Amino acid sequence: MARLIGTALLWLALLALIAAAYIHGRNYVRTHPQDVPWTPLRLDDPMGAFTLRKLVSLSEDPAHCRALLGAAGSGDLSASARVAQANCNYSDGMRLASAPGEVTFAPSGEVTRCSMAAALLVWERQVLQPAALRHLGHKVRRIDHAGSYSCRRLYNRSEGAFSEHATANAFDVLGFRLTDGTSVSVLKDWRGPGSKSAFLREVRDGACELFATVLGPDYNLAHADHLHFDHAARGRMGFGVCR
Ligand SMILES: [Zn+2]
Question: How many angstroms is it from 68 CA to the middle of ligand 1?
Answer without folding.
Answer: 25
